[in-house]
Amino acid sequence: MNHLYKNDMVTGSEALIRSLHIEGVECVFGIPGGSVLNIYDAIHEVPAFEHILARHEQGAIHAADGYARATGKVGVCFATSGPGATNLVTGIATAYMDSVPLVVITGNVPTALIGTDAFQEADITGITMPISKHNFLVRDVYELPGIIHEAFYIASTGRKGPVIFDIPKDVSSQMMMFQYPPDIPSIRGYKPNGQPSETQIQKLLRAIEEAERPVILAGGGVVYSDASKELLEFAEKTQIPVTTTLLGLGGFPSAHELWIGMPGMHGTYTANKALQNCDLLISIGARFDDRVTMKTSGFAPKARTIAHIDIDPAEIGKIVETGIPCIGDVKLVLQQANINAKPGKSEAWMNEIQANKREFPLRYADSDKPLKPQFVMEMISETTNGEAIITTDVGQNQMWAAQFYQFKHPRSLITSGGLGTMGFGFPSAIGAQVGNPGRLVVSVNGDGGFQMCAQELAICAIHNIPVKIVILNNQVLGMIRQWQELIYDDRFSHMDLSGSPDFVKLAEAYGVTGLRATNKEEARKAWQEAMDNPGPVLIDFVINQDENVYPMVTPGSTIDDMIMGDEA
């Protein structure tokens, strides 16, 4: 790698490729276009540079996002100016909402044409300013190595997020003497500090000792800060039950006796009741999303104290009033807290929690045909022993995966939480698989979301990326249909997907093995065949369109006001 640091004359594009090598980038996802052809020409000269050609820019950025979430590294994608760049916007917003580190590299028209409405010109820095952690417009080729270094630093420190830098075509072809900054940059106005306050940690420990009904709400921050071991130690030392948000799933082992499930709109009875009846609520890396709190004014009404551990001070007190703010890196906060952590007076509380877990587990009315989506997720969980990486799309498939897959490890669930982006699930699985070639990656989709990025099947076929693609096919926009049934009095409007393609034939058309299952026997056989196949496989699980996700809390209700379903 030392030769990459040598001072010699290169183009801006060559400097970019060299800089990405220095930053340790393993793979870039992208699509070429006129404004980035200089960059792609530079790639041609570096055969070892791994680039995966997506079929749509949204597929490229979702793949980079899945890579980042599954590995903890920075994901990288390329796109050209104008429509190429604007096609990335949904993916940038998806990563921003979920604090995912991405470096997004776009081309732009030559500097002299910026602002003239030139062909394929768009102000991508202006467009993405509200949905990115930071962005740059590179006007001088000599600024490029430093900007790249800053971009990776900003994306991967503090509260992580996407950083965009836009390179005009003339800058990418200009010559420069290559020098790469060797040190962590000093950036005016950006001083991420993960060091927590010892005083606030001591307040938290005193509150725990005095609490009789404490509960931990653990979110994606636990996963992103690699603090799962510290959370486990903290929960066991304090004997506090743990509920994990959608993005926090895997941050605490699902099989542990202290885990009480996911909270919120489709949370477990035990988790929601615990949040409503606790006297001490400790939020760890969770931002009190509205799908967790539901009616905010009625959230955790018995909590005498709410503690909030988060690296982003802007999240403290934003949604709920916080009594004990612990600003800092979750891992560092928990490491300090674990030195003196001990249980409070919560033995009776734990007995109540365990009784609720026994009496009110997740249930569904099982059947052989129609095939139940809950059964499919249980089958996948059992046969993979909870060791797979699961990516999901958005909607019912996402909730069934969250409810019925037993996650053992962090970074095992890749899903769009904050933005709820349909089309995310399948391309993110490609990125997760590229970043984890030795792991089983399962992409769980609805028939609606899958069609939004189905063209990325070509990537799996060409590169033999062995993602197992699960489609829970109910021929409707399932969560839309569920809301229209339960909230809109059966007024079903434009949720019918009966004109969708035959997904088995679609997979085969791309060169991917396609299978179908309509009952339990077929489901077990098809899943085993997929597991035994070393390449990519798509399985179309045909389910009933009337199947709903339960429990459910309707908008405007408190989280303990749950519709439990027919099997309550």
How would you summarize the topology of this molecule?
Blueprint: E1 9-11, H1 12-22, E2 28-30, H2 37-44, E3 51-53, H3 57-71, E4 75-79, H4 83-86, H5 89-97, E5 102-108, H6 124-128, E6 134-137, H7 144-156, E7 162-168, H8 169-173, E8 175-177, H9 198-210, E9 214-218, H10 220-224, H11 228-238, E10 242-244, H12 269-277, E11 280-284, H13 290-293, E12 305-310, E13 324-327, H14 330-340, H15 347-359, H16 373-384, E14 389-392, H17 396-404, E15 413-414, H18 425-435, E16 441-446, H19 447-450, H20 457-463, E17 468-473, H21 478-486, H22 503-510, E18 513-517, H23 520-532, E19 537-542
Parallel strand pairs: 2-3, 2-4, 4-5, 5-7, 6-7, 9-10, 9-11, 11-12, 12-13, 14-15, 14-16, 16-17, 17-19, 18-19
Antiparallel strand pairs: 1-8
Helix pairs in contact: 1-2, 1-7, 3-5, 3-18, 9-14, 11-14, 16-17, 16-23
Spans of at least 5 consecutive residues whose pLDDT stays below 50 are none
Please tally the helical runs, counting DSSP H or I stretches of 4 or more residues: 23
Number of strands: 19
Alpha-carbon Rg, integer = 24 Å
Q: From the structure provided, what is the oligomeric state, counting identical versus distinct chains?
A: single chain
Instruction: Calculate the mean pLDDT score and round it.
Output: 95
The helical percent reads 25-40%
Give the percentage of residues in beta strands. Answer: 15-25%
Overall CATH architecture of the largest domain: 3-Layer(aba) Sandwich
Largest sheet: 6 strands, parallel
Major sheet: order of its strands? 3-2-4-5-7-6
Per CATH, the class of the largest domain reads Alpha Beta
Number of domains: 3
Shape from CA axes? globular
Cofactor: thiamine diphosphate; Mg(2+)
Enzyme class: transferase
Keywords: Amino-acid biosynthesis, Branched-chain amino acid biosynthesis, FAD, Flavoprotein, Magnesium, Metal-binding, Thiamine pyrophosphate, Transferase
GO biological process, one term: isoleucine biosynthetic process
